[in-house]
Records
---
Amino acid sequence: MGAKLGITHTQLNIVALAGNVGVYTTGPVWGRIVDSRGPRILLCCAFVFLLGGYMGMRYLYDAGLPEGVNHLSVLSFAALVLCSYLTGAGGNGGLTSSVNSTARTFPDQMRGITTGLVISGFGLSAFLFSTISHTFFPGNTSTFLFILAVGTAFPMILGFFFIRPIPLPPHKKTPHDEYDAVPEEGAEGTRDGPESALLHDEDDAEEDDDEDPSTSPVYVAEAGVAPEHRRRERDVEMSPQLRFEGRELDVDHDRRTDRSLSRGAAITHDTLPNVYGLKLWKSSDFHLLFSILSLLSGTGLMYINNVGSMSQALYAFNNPHYDPKKAAQWQSIQVSSISLMNCAGRILIGVISDFAKNRFDIPRSYCLVLVSLTCCISQVIAARVDRIADLWVASSVLGLGYGAVFSLLPTVCLEWFGMPHFSENWGYLSMSPMIAGNLFSILFGWNLDKNEDKMPKHSAPAAVSLGSAVSAITARASLPSAEVRCSRGPECYVDSIYVTIAATFFAVGLSVWAGMRDRKKIKMALGRREVLRREQD
């Protein structure tokens, strides 16, 4: 498309980013709708947006450039950007409806793996569609866009009839689920009505300044429940059972199941987290997750949007026999590597986080460190690769980490901020990739455009033979300008990779901090719960 429509690398990044912006800016809107109205509205919108977006891109591609014009007009370029935005918005509508229904259907012990399995399809789609295209319609971009339009839009219609949340049985519900069915009362950010009981420890005033004021209160079981169940049954003070929303709770059983060091499990029926709206944006926990997701997803977006240019630069490096078809095959290998490992990462992190929590009492937030390290390692590998045959290693590791990011963060978001406004909160959190994603991708495009094929300003090192220098010059001279704009290998883009190495390393540090904060708050919640139980006894 870039070659046919005369689009620069920077403009291609803008088109690609428009799709990502469509994903992230619609998150809060889709989230609020699905939280309150269910998934069907989103699936209808997704069908229209996906079909219209990809078919619009196909129309612009087929129309091409008028005779004697070398680049796309401003109006046509704006239309291309809009179509890309619609595809992102539609894709996110389908994803949000599926993830929300999954989270509400399965218990907390299984949410990591079930959510990961559903989201894994989002990572596998690139491999699926690129394989179909290269197998049956090689080199036919118009047909590829048509397949994308039909292949992404019509499953939304199937989802309209089949996707719906299935309520959990009472014995399977977590505090998030119990609270979800309660009508909203009280101030924004909580559901504690005027008669709810708010427990404060005597040493609350001495707590660290960095504790998030919106998540520190511990709300007892009566908070936000129906009026007829708000008053405690004082005549059963010594009973091992308590009433919660009209049913009996086995306190001894709750004590046995409180070991898990996840924020949601630590609070069980005593704390009902429901942070949203203005309280969410004031939460330091939210900004911490927002920063981690921005850095990691921004790195992934930059790499994914530009791995084709990276593979072209490496394939053309010191290669006097440049073959566009072979170059396209190497590009396809990168796409497949990222897509397959993206899918694997989403499933694998779900298994790891569930196993760590259920078996070893390790909070899911601890897995943020593992995910951040994976992304950082991928960028270190990418900076050291100087042969096209080795680029798949960096692509695979990047896909693994990037997929894990978008599988783990929704579950952590649910645990930290609650189920009632889960999709809306995740929508706000998933806006974070727009910051680093836009910055890193445009920086990459600018860096690549700056290094367009020219004679290097510095002389070749003495260790380079005359034959090697002639081969490199011949290779650059023989390259079709529409296909490759930089043939100096890693030199074309490595400065951008150095930026993402620093960003992912910083994300590792933030992830360590997030785990430490989570463990501290879990201990505080468990301590407060014990105080409450002693009062009940």
---
Amino acid sequence: MSTYTARLAALRDQLSRQQLDGFVVPLTDEHMSEYVGAYAQRLAWLTGFQGSAGTAVVLPAEAAIFTDGRYTLQVREQVSADDWQFVGVPDTSVSAWLAGHAKQGGRIGYDPWLHTRAWVDEASKALEVVDATLVPVDTNPVDAIWPDQPARSDARLSVHEDANAGRSSADKRAVVADWLTEQEADAVVLASLESIAWLLNVRGGDVSRTPVALAYAVVNADGTADLYVAPEKMTEEVAQHLGNAVRVHDHREFAPALGTFAGKRVAVDPTLSVAAIPLAIEAGGGEVVALRDPTVVPRATKNSVEQAGHRSASIRDGAALSRFLRWISIEAPKGGQTELSAAAKLEEFRRETGVLKDLSFDAISATGPHGAIPHYHVTDESSLPIEPGQLYLIDSGGQYVDGTTDVTRVVPIGAPTAEMRDRFTRVLKGHIALATAVFPRGTTGAQLDALARLPLWQAGLDFAHGTGHGVGSYLSVHEGPARIAKPSYPGSGPSESLLPGMILSNEPGYYKAGEYGIRIENLLLVVERTFEGGEDVMLAFETLTLAPIDRDLIDSALLTPGELSWLNDYHARVAGTLAPELEGEDRAWLIERCAPLR
């Protein structure tokens, strides 16, 4: 098992023992999470792929790994082309590929705790063309051959105080109970870890970079709830916080409990719940009602306390990032710094705030050609030295009890080329266009996406990732349901109207394969805006993130007067807000880097 080739061979042997002609390995867990615990990193263990989204299919004589445009370069760098075919989505789906490659009458295995019911139905239908069958497995064959598979985390739950949440758990559960009454349902199953954390005002440490606990919850029409979690995760403080209205059960009792809803209507979110959940409810005589998780939109629309908390988190995070940007501008040209050392230094500055709980994701610390990999993951083996003539890209964020941050900046090491400045300025123009957008209620992120791309399109350029994603409040750095992306972007789902209180990223980019990457990312808060003489209350964005945008990469001749005014106003706000948080040379550097451009 010391090589990925050996692991693939071992999986094929295991499939033969389980009488399967293939198996599908997604990168997710039993909660359909984007970021998963170490025990659920089956795709990485099998293939070596370190991205945050992907799927593998293993057949007796061939194997394929499916990734979207964010990982086109990364997957080829990390996964052996001798063992795996590289397939792009959404151009080709896993189901369509199976229909063209599975053997006639074959048995294709899947883990019903790792796929949605919609995917099972889609794949089953696709396989009909070759009379093949999708077969649920009781034992995941990857787990069967993974000798040192990490144990599930035993981190304890903690209370997320109402002072940071802005609403009590009892209030949130009452709203869900009213919703159940409106839907004429008896209960709703919550499988999303973020939903459970938000609803019960608890946090955990089971998933790296995301403060959630492995658990399930059932909320009943009377406002009570049943929480299924490993007993060792509970503390007396959490028990008192939950109160008598939340009954706590061993997580191993969840699957059997699904069979106890005979004669009842149970709401299940089909996009956030694995197939095993509705199948078990129906097997026990319950009626499954496919409805969106009722906590998703309330969780995404931050209340005034959460908004104020994020503003505070943005100030301390911006001060830490500014210290880092000064440090990298001085130290990198001297030589001796690497992608890993730079990421470690930024984490050090964030930890010096004294209140950092964790990073919000593994920093994308990328220099030169690695910058052209949008979701590059630096390792000991891949870390490159940061050298003159390169662009260094750092995409990072922090988890604080009052907010989750995510920001990207690019620093030239030495003098940038004219092309670099042109591309950077076009990305900046798109960033400004989105930041200054004004739009009516009912507008979706898909409708705004082109604003960020137009300056690139006008030069025959584009970028292969979404322009913006939702961000949680001391929760996941990637949060639905809203996003800013092309309608065809992988995972976009139905168009979602932007609502006041939503926090989304604004991160257009440009990537030149093998040479450099550019991305400028701030977080935006959707706010209401009125106009004198206007007939409607409109929506707009408040930029939350505070950090200087590198002036040496900006070709001001390409900026319109309005764009230049926005940039100077933004930098004035950055300097005015962050300067009091900094001292000495850090403060002087910030003020100089935020001086107006002409």
---
Amino acid sequence: MLQPRSLSLLTLAALALLGLLALTGLLRLRFNYNFNDFYPTGDPDLAYYQDYARRFGNDNDYVLVGLEAPAGRTVFDADFARRVDAFTRFAQRQRNVRQVVSPTTASNPIVEGLGVFNVPYLHLDQLGRDPASRARDSALIYRTPGLVGNLFAPDARAVAVVLQTTPDLKKPPGDTLLAALRGELRRLGVGDEQIHFGGKMVAQSVFVDRLRVEMAVFVSLSVLLVMGLLWLTFRAWWGVVLPLSVVAGATVGGLALVGWSGAGIDLMTALLPVMMCVVGIADSVHLLTRYVTETGEGTPTVPALRISMRESMFGSGLSALTTSLGFFTLTASHIRPIHNFGLYTGLAVLIAYALSFTLLPALLVLLPRPQQKFGAGRSWDGPLMRLLAWVLRRRALIVGAAAVLVVGALAAASQVRIESRLLDDLADDDPVQLDFRFFERAFAGVRPFELHLLPQGGRTVYSLDVLRETEEIEAYLQSRYGLRFVASPVTVVKSLRKALNGGALAEYRLPDSEAELQRLLRRLRPFRKKPEFRALALDDARQGRLTGRMPDPGSTTVARLNRGLQQFLRTHTDPGVLRTRQTGSALLIDKNNQNLTRDMLLGIGMDVVMVTVIVLALFRSFRMVPVVLIPNLLPIVVVGGVMGLCGVPMKVSTSIIFTIAFGIAVDDTIHFITKLRLMLGKEPTVEAAVRHTYRLAGKAVIVTSLILVGGFSTLLFSSFDGTFYVGLLIGLTLLFGVVAELTLLPILILHFYKKPRVGRARRLTASEK
């Protein structure tokens, strides 16, 4: 049989080999922010949109460049207009730019004879020297539909250049394009305060860059905080280094799994190292606390370690199971980043547990025995026993206060609303958010809208009755829904009619008769080749697209608008003529909100079932189930009330908080009741067993809770709102949880567990030994 030192060396060698293997996974890690990952996987609407995008293109493959005129000038200033034109020409030459729509290249087509003449709306060569020409240009622009709010701001103080980019452009080429565009604008003398960028590619670039920085900052802060708390707890270098070794190993293992899977580090998985710094250390603290107590009583190293492992391993295993389950329940989410975060963090928690009872004991055996005085490790006994005595004297007060708190929290939690926006994770004063707000204020906005047009009965999107119904839908969307820019096959036909009638604005309308429409359609071919028109109908005209942009009013308002739109389509559209289906990237993001409550309740429900099974297996008593659940569900209810009082909405990032917090908070309860189960076999009464358990487990409960709360508090420095609220709300949940653990739990045990089968518990304990 191997000696403890030999076994420890073999263990360390095996773990070192696994560490080298894990490094291959780390080398494959990549940062990733793919907007499409937030679509609900497996949803029929996603499959529909993917098919729609293959035919018409994605609705978010564009970059908006907003340029403000210098102070005191308008967009019709000759020098400013020339700079916009130079930038437009530069953008057209860029590698991943498919098309550029700009105020300086927009033109009014006129058909004369067999030719099409494109008359520019802005006559650049005359702006500076012919005031009459400038007045004519501005008058025509501000009367022409589709220009104001799309390319020109209503106050004539800014213009927008729209760049259609390569589909699903990734970060490296996207960053290169953005850098080139910014560089050219600076070369042209356009100040940074005049430049605004909007679109998916912009957000994608910013998110990934900040992920790198914040991940490093959070891990550094968490490590420093944990080191400080561990030092205050154990007052020895090994009390700091050993738990951190376990955390480092678990973090490397979890990230290696991410690397091997190819999932990448996104907005959610970037939290994994922080989670492990605070969650993965709990098992080590429980084991070391018990070990310090035993060695302080004079027990030799190896026997002390055996006792500590025997008393901690089972409880830590159960707590690791409940914590990992809290993360694993997130895999039920239809949102891929949340699914991946739950999966890999849950696996990392199990790795931390395995290392706590392999790496940590091996190092303790090989290291010199801690030098402690007899009785060390009991400095917390006096304060803990005084706290317990105070709690037991004021049982009625504590229970009453908890009941009042729950009632108030439930009332406040009823005010929590489900609400999200496309850039929800950016703070209101974030530069990217401000740029997007600029486009909402000065132009049509950045939220895309898509409606699939499906003519019926052999009709095409250019059939007169289909066009009239489409026009009626457009009118509703602009007057009632909030679209500020809209384009459809109606746009094509109206533009053609205007072009065939000398470009007169009065002729921008649908034809009056079928005969006139047929004459127009015979002249349509040159127009249908234009990229902006070709994207609105398939070549056979059997399907079409109504597209637009609008400000983002939030998911709750959009849901109400969608209900109104569906009601309008049912009552004002003849399904025998035209069928429609709303689709698009924004709609898919909004659909995530429909599943938030279900996913949250499913996660907490699974956690509750698992904890119930554990309690029943340990105590064979249903009376112990509320003893365990009440102290851990109460903090979740209280934090729900905090969300309601502070107006924090339920959204993708905050919906995961309750499941994770419950899984983490219940750990200390699991440790407490597993030690209580052992003490029931040693003590003559339940109260004596509770007192003994409170003394043994109290220190570890407080220390691990402080580490958890402190670790999550580092997330308060995040520039992402979602990350900020994860830190704030989980920290509050755990803070309320430790208070409930130290006050309500002993009261509930003494109230519900009156007649333990002590003899059976004693036999179980003896057999375990």
---
Amino acid sequence: MIGSLPMLRGLAGFNRAWLRSDIPAGLSIAAVGLPSAIAYPAIAGLPPETGIYASIVAPIAYAIFGPSRLLVVGPDAATMTVLAAAMGAIIAAEPATASVDRVAIASALALGVGVFCIAAKLLRLGVLASFLSRPILVGFFAGVSLSILVGQIGRFTGVKIQSDGLIPPLVEMLAKSSLIHWPSLVLGLVMFALLWIVKAFRFRVPGPVLVVVLSVVLSAIFDFQGRGIAVVGDIPSGLPSLSLPALHQMPLDKIVLGSAAIFLVSFGAGIVAARSFGSRTGEEVDANQELVGLGAANIAPALFGSFPVSVSDSRTAINLSTGGVSQAAGLVSAATLVAALVFLHSALRILPIPALAAILATAAISLIDIHELKKIWRISRMEFIFALIAMWGAISFGVLNGVIVAVAATLVYLLRQTMFPRDGLLGRIEGRHGFFDLARFPEARPVEGAAVFAIQGSILFYNADYVRTRLTSVARALPAETRCLVLDAGAVTHIDSTGAAALDAVAEILAKRNIVFAMADLSEESRGILERAGVIEAIGAHNLFNGREEALRALIGTVGEAGSAASAG
């Protein structure tokens, strides 16, 4: 029955035997997820219970609508940082006298992210997942991690830090160093060290779980709250009621822009993570289908007083490592967290804030992928520069503006790659088939009486002038005995009206020198553009050919060697 419902793909083919794997996996997911569920909301100034709510309802929604068997959704440090920036912009737009309901704003943004996901699915915009390249994401998350680390200064020290950015909070901390609450700082640093010890020695008990249990026990024994160490405080013991955020009381333009920024980062990073896990398990990742699952996983928290979520690396990794086989593991995790909320709220109330700061600081450091940055440096210096630009944007302009910088860097990179399409004059090598780039193969020789010029890339408004200049310089440098110039358009995927005008200008120059301008292997779409622009009429339809060899035979009477495009340079 379940398998026949398309919306329950993560539970397709379910049988009871799977519970032997899914129940332990779900318990492990809950154990690892509870500390982050309590800690992450602090990044955006939200109460800890909102993280628990998100960790309960989001996996349930994804189990119903998500396509993957193994992915687990939940609070994510990077998404929370973008959420914090978006909330800051919305709160700043509110009148000073207005009461600010941070939970309602976070819920409205979660609803907006969900709507963006569904709209993108309907428009089949899953390709947006590839819009932020891996280098851009790596750099952006490195910048986000530094922002998170700086944000923990106050929680570690017990000092209220009012400055924003990267350097000002450090300067303010130095100025207020006399106010440091040393027991809080010592506790936070000890727990931070414990997390790294557990990670280094690969303890079977996850570090965050150990920190939460140990710090709660110590807090109960030594009365941390009475000694001035901040604790989480009261956490509601019941589940939230279903309600819609009051959108009419909020600046909708800021809600839309904030939701768009969160959607772009969380979906882009989520699909990167999904594909990474999919490559290990052999599970295909369909970005358009994932939009439905992530849309539902964000709308559900919005209706229960929580915030946006994304694919959780840590929870998905735990699911895989403990043998989870279906979304039943996510449902077990949700049920476990419900039990924790009902029965453990008294223990969670005395959880010390410095311990949560240690968990957040460790999570932030894990966002800095030094190995990947080294790999990018080794592969492409240019992409490494764009990674640094994205990191600098997140640090210098704030996380929300950093998203804009990251998107702008991606656009600049894409334009840079296509503004100067690869081109070159082609010739033959004696005894070998095909055509070869004269600049790359010194032994290649031009075809006598003709010139063959190849362009690899589209000819569009932003590179048409470059293409025209290149073709014009080639045309003017041709020997006097040249009878034709054949443009190999086999790798030209698209030509717009500006590109057509550039080719028309080249045709005029060649006509003045009595050199025939011909095109080979022109696509039907590009031919239609050139016909409507009058370029085909100018050069003559009889000068369009299916290949370079056909063009040379017709224009100069040469019987060429059988060549292949694959051997062309």
